[in-house]
Each structure stands twice: as structure tokens, then as C-alpha cells.
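Good morning,

Attaching, inline, the C-alpha cells for the sequence recovery test we're adding to the shared suite. The designed sequence is right after.
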């Protein structure tokens, strides 16, 4: 059994920012981050390919979005990352597409209404840098989904032989009833680990988390050959009318270092129940429907449309909780001291709810609570 001060489930933006802040403040001597994916970043990760060493595709969030210019500790963090060349203001063109197939102003979506920054050279660089800043005292374990939690004698016991004094969840999966159907689990792991009444704060937090809803995205990833002609936008946002008709929120283009083009189609969910036995067919279904929608959506860009026959599908990525929609976790429930459980992520109440701003701010605030 390996003992650490803190275990964090998930290696997204908030988790990596938390690790960096805790080590900078010297709050913990050791911590482990356990992540189901192949690397850090979460929805700010970058897809790489084993068969293509040059390929880098930001297949989730294409930018870090804020509701306003960051201030205080958050502003200092953003400034530091910019000074080090890890972040840069995003000035890439964003356009809208209306029901007539004509260009228009993009919709007034919260992700577009404030300043945005883009990771350099890719979005994954942000989480990777924050994790590196945390130093050698941070252990990482990638590629294993945590499905069971155990709390015994005041210590959290985790797969891989880890035992932690404190547990932090950077996502809601282990605390939300959606895991029951989506992953076929018999119970909500955090609720099973700590009995009702042991920590009233945790009871209240779990009740709050249980009513949260989040959007689901089916993101189709494509490789296109080099496209010449007029400059292309970075993001193409569909109006609400077109989103409802096509089941697509936006298209994101990612120029590759060798001239090829990556295209991510952010597909909306159609309400079909997601279970372990239905997911394989759902992935095929969404890939087919998103491919079928593309030719019409790319009419304003003939060169892109002409490249579609040569496009190579790289599959569909399902984001089970792409963006929280409502019932943010109140900040006073972010830290539950009796069970020593904390929460961070863009689903915590406050400015920037549902955005990178909220994810980073929640990490900085939890780091202060843990001091």
C-alpha cells in the first residue's frame, strides 16, 4: 500500500491546476492523480495518434473561455502561463451559420461572450504544464477507470494500492446517479463509500450533485488533406435553428504542422439511452449522421466541401458531461472536512460556471480550503 496525502480522481484542467497550487503552497507532500484517459487534459486534451507522430487534434474544448478578464490569483495564473508561452489570446475567426446556409454572427453563447485563450502549441499543453509545475511529488496513473471507492479508518483506499488521507473528485461521475446506467455500475461509488449521516456536508453535496444535468457531445474527428484558397475560420457555430435540424453545435478546424487539416464536428445528443451495451451502436450511429450532415454545412467553403471525399474518419469521442447546465454545486459544499472529500471543476458555483474559468477558479479556491 502506497500512502499519499491526497488522491485526485481525474486529470482535467481543474485537477492539474489543483495539484500545481497545492505544491506551490506546500500544502501537501505527496499526491496521486488517477485518470481513465491516456493523458492529462480532460475536455482540454489533445488527441494524438500511434500511427502518425505529427498529428495533434484538440478534440474537446478548442479554447479556454472566460466570462470576463481574470483577476486576482486566477489572473496571475493566466498571466504566468502566457508569459511562459503556454497560453495565447485566441483571435482566430469565429463565424455563424444560419438556416439558409449563409454566414452570420455567431450565437451569443457563454463560451464566446468573453475573452478566450488557446493552448500553445495545443490545448493539452496547459494541463501538462500545470502538472509538471507540481513536481516529482505528484504520481500519475493513466488508463484505468476508477469504479469503486473505499473509506476505512479515516483513509481513502483506491485501486492500484493507493491510500490517501484526502480525496478530491474533479468530475461528477463517481458521485452522480448517471453513472448507474451509463457505465452499468450497481451504485454511486462515493455514496457507497461513506454512509449517510457520517458527514452532513457530504450528504448535502451528494444531494446537490444528484440533480445536476450536463450536455452530452458526440464529437466526430476527421483528417482532411491540405486545403488551399481563402483563409478558413477556426470555429463555425450553427444558429439554434440549424443545431436543432442537424444535431450539430459547431465545427472546429485545427491546422496541422504539415498542412493537413483536422476537423471536429461537435455533435449534439439525441436522447437515446447510453449504456455499456448500447454505446457501440450509438458511436456508429452518430458517426454516420454527422458525416451525412457535413456536405450541406460546408457549402460556404467550397474547398473544404471538395476535400470531404478524401476525409478520413478518426472515430467519435463521446463526452458524457461536456458542459454542466444547471444546479451548480454551492461553494460551501466544495470541501467536506469530516470525510475529507473535496470537489473541483467547472460545475462548482461561481463566475465561469461551465467554462475553463470556473474549472481553474474552483481549483484555486479548493487549494486555499485545504491549507
Amino acid at each position: 500500500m502506497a500512502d499519499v496525502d491526497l488522491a485526485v480522481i481525474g486529470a482535467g484542467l481543474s485537477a492539474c491546476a489543483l495539484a500545481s497550487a497545492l505544491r506551490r503552497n506546500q500544502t501537501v507532500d505527496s499526491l496521486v492523480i488517477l485518470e481513465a484517459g491516456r493523458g492529462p487534459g480532460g475536455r482540454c486534451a489533445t488527441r494524438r495518434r500511434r500511427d502518425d507522430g505529427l498529428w495533434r487534434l484538440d478534440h474537446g474544448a478548442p479554447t479556454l473561455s472566460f466570462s470576463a478578464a481574470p483577476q486576482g490569483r486566477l489572473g496571475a495564473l493566466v498571466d504566468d502561463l502566457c508569459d511562459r508561452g503556454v497560453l495565447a489570446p485566441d483571435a482566430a475567426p469565429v463565424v455563424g451559420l444560419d438556416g439558409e446556409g449563409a454566414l452570420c454572427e455567431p450565437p451569443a453563447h457563454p463560451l464566446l461572450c468573453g475573452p478566450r485563450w488557446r493552448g500553445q502549441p495545443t490545448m493539452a499543453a496547459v494541463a501538462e504544464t500545470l502538472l509538471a509545475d507540481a513536481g516529482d511529488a505528484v504520481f500519475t496513473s493513466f488508463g484505468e477507470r476508477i469504479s469503486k471507492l473505499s473509506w476505512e479508518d479515516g483513509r481513502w483506499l483506491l485501486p492500484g494500492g493507493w491510500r490517501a488521507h484526502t480525496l478530491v473528485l474533479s468530475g461528477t461521475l463517481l458521485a452522480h446517479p448517471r453513472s448507474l446506467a451509463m457505465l452499468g455500475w450497481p451504485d454511486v461509488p462515493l455514496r457507497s463509500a461513506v454512509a449517510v449521516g457520517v458527514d452532513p456536508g457530504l450528504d448535502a453535496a451528494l444531494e446537490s450533485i444528484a440533480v445536476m444535468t450536463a450536455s452530452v457531445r458526440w464529437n466526430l474527428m476527421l483528417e482532411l488533406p491540405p486545403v488551399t484558397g481563402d483563409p478558413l475560420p477556426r470555429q463555425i457555430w450553427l444558429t439554434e435553428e440549424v443545431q436543432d435540424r442537424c444535431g450539430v453545435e459547431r465545427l472546429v478546424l485545427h491546422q496541422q504542422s504539415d498542412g493537413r487539416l483536422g476537423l471536429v464536428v461537435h455533435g449534439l445528443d439525441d436522447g437515446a439511452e447510453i449504456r455499456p451495451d448500447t454505446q457501440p451502436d450509438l458511436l456508429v450511429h452518430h458517426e454516420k449522421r454527422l458525416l451525412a450532415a457535413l456536405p450541406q454545412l460546408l457549402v460556404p467553403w467550397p474547398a473544404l466541401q471538395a476535400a470531404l471525399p478524401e476525409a478520413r474518419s478518426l472515430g467519435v469521442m463521446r463526452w458524457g458531461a461536456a458542459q454542466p447546465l444547471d444546479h451548480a454545486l454551492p461553494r460551501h459544499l466544495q470541501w467536506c472536512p469530516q470525510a475529507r472529500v473535496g470537489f473541483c471543476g467547472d460545475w462548482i458555483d461561481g463566475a465561469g460556471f461551465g467554462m475553463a474559468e470556473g474549472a481553474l477558479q474552483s481549483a484555486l479556491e479548493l487549494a486555499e480550503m485545504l491549507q
